[in-house]
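Supplementary Data S3. Sequence and structure tokens for construct A.
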Amino acid sequence: MFSTNKSAFKLLQMALLVAMAFMFACNSEDDITPEDPQEADRWVTVAGALMGDSPGDGNGGTKIYAVSFEDAINPETEINVFDNGEPVKSNRTARLQVSEDGNTLFNIAYAGENGGEFAKFNVNGGSSYVQQDVTVNISQYVGPAPRWSKLYNGDKNGIAVNVADIAPNNAEDEEEAFSYYRGTATVLDLNLQEGLIDNYKPYELPLSAEEELAGHCIFRLDAPVLNQAGDKLLIGTWMRKYNVATGERESEWERLGTKTIVVDYPSLENPTIITSTQANGDCSGYRSNVNQIAEDGSIYQATSRDTNGSHILRITPDNEYDNTFAISLDEALGLTDVYVDAWRYVNNGIGYAMIRHGEEDQGYIARLDLNQQTASLVNEIPNDPDVRFNQYQGFMVNGNDLLVPVSPLGKDGNIYVLHSQTGEVSVGAKLINKPGNHFIGAF
């Protein structure tokens, strides 16, 4: 009797285990979207740029205001950044970065009396941004208006870059034969946790002898990104050309292929230049990072000032351009002279770009499918000639979703939630605006 009951009990246990395993397998198969629980209770910082002399110039400074994630995506919420927000130290539009959990804000003041000053703040909600007792000024290394980006390495480091003192090699001796125009580039590694400079390296970045003899040079660096292996930094460039006979900067010229600087990390040594054959635009971006790393270790890069409109290029995990890949946004969207102001990769081959085209200043959003090498306009945002994205900085990724504040100049707007895998769009919180002002991101 005891033996029979024991066997039955064992059979019951086995049946229960099989059933539980089956249920777990079904649930796992049905729910293929990875959860991202860190966003559930995080702060979302909304940033707005104030008018200086003219509407949309952003030269009046920056204000920020933090709301919960739930409020950010709730269309019943109203956010009044310009009346209730906290001003950020910066002579012009601040270049903000936020920690992965949304609880810490990083800023390097751009120009002005405190240009180059790094500071970090605890984000406590609303207008409460409490500055931590960590301040360092990097202006003596990279100037008072450095370009910089936070690396995707757990909020450990940020990279600031600059090119200064561009001049011909014979600037001090006209009898010497002209060979090149060059400036001194500086790459600085900033420890975001300690507020210390971990490393910096100054060097010249020579092009080929033929390119330099024609007057080409690297005018600006920006958009640094760390590769997936963590051993190389890739830095975007903005090119310039001088008339070697007159020394005047040329406004139109036959452009070179898009160029990216690759340096060892963390040593910052051994700078090399890689060149794309698929586009000739600059890859420095403006106020946001145009170099985005995907799950497979590829870096996707948006160009600007390209003679054939902006492109999306691919750099392989081996830190070389994949010259078999390029998305021409002119061709993909059926437009002329598309210009990418900012863009953000989301997940599973999908990203979104803020663009304008032709002679217009009006901003649009395009959904990019990198796997299919296609693009389409997002029609759910306001179709208004006063929408501007030229100073856009911050995108917040939450799993497969992207949060973007959008409003025409001086008009109220909303946070829009772009569902990358379906292409659908949800309307989030209402944004209260002021004359001449606009919104530049959510972090």
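Construct B, processed identically:
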Amino acid sequence: MSFLVTIISFIIVFGVLVSVHEYGHMFFAKRAGIMCPEFAIGMGPKIFSFRKNETLYTIRLLPVGGYVRMAGDGLEEPPVQPGMHVKIKVNDKDEITHIILDDQHKFQQIEAIEVKQCDFKDGLYIEGITAYDQERHRYPIADKSYFVENGSLIQIAPKDRQFTYKKPYQKFLTLFAGPLFNFLLTLVLFIGLAYYQGTPTNSVDEVAKGSPAAQAGLKSGDTIVKLGSHKINDKDDIDQAVSEIKDQKTKLTVERDGKQQTFDIKPKKVEQKMTKTHSETKYLLGYQADTEHTVFKPIISGLEQTVTAGKLIFTAILSMIASIFTGQFSFDMLNGPVGIYHTVDSVVKTGIINLISWMALLSVNLGLMNLLPVPALDGGRILFVIYEAIFRKPVNKKAETTIVAIGAVFVLIVMVLVTWNDIQRYFL
């Protein structure tokens, strides 16, 4: 049963994070007029699909990412290549309206052609030898034209529907939208948790045994009104005061049964490991704050937690990058799908609240990692767009394709190594 719960939790976490990220790309792409032939969750063989309008929505077997195919983004490969034999249907202007790649059709007056040259991005044409006269012909592709494959019509994008021909700001928004939606997901999750759990106050709910608070004489129901020289109105005031006092002995004033009492207290210094590469020194009083349910405080709390999570993950990423140059880098610093599954298995046992909190952190991590300036990632492709905006011309297409391909190979190699490392760590 535990195994089944872990599997379901992993599928939900993975599916939500990737879906939100890729939906962000598609949301802005479609508003820029960019055609999106496919929206995929997972990689590898297709296990489920359905078509809505011009987009095919697919779920694929391997839980190692997802993608949105955008027309003219330089990453998609057209299904027709030189040397292939296909059938075409043309209109009265001799423009191709359908390129037929299967036998599941009912078209009449079609022509067979051996493709010699073709261009589905810039020139938008097919040139080849037709069967009926064995002569070489060049056919332009009509504005409304389709690939006919597996009984489905897949529209061929005209220039004004291609990523390549959009303005730099539209490209930037489309690429940045994936990480942006991950950040928004984190915000929504933290705000939702704050509404559900309530926001902490300066009142005491529980006191941990043996803690500085217990040793000082703090009790459940006390309201902290002063810590050292700091007046206390809410939990944030307590956190700020403790961070300044650190582990020095100080005075703690509480309100108990309508009267104020003062105690001596010394916060405890604790080293907390925040990520695999980053630890923080914290000072704890050792109590759990009481909570309240209000209308606006959960929104502020969610914003604060999102910013804190962003700072935490950003610092961890910088530490990881720095470790490459100091020789301290280890693949243990990274988690692939296997590592994420193992973490889900651990976190889900502690309850749904912790799983949601961890998913919020993972969403920030996914957003920030995708903004790294690696060519195959969103951040790397954004650099090309910034170059285009500054110099008023796009990067050389061959150079961009080569750089992105190298980046993709690099990311794939890293993913394989991380996955193998995770398997060795957790299962061998």
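The first strand starts at residue 38 and ends at 52. The radius of gyration is 29 Å.
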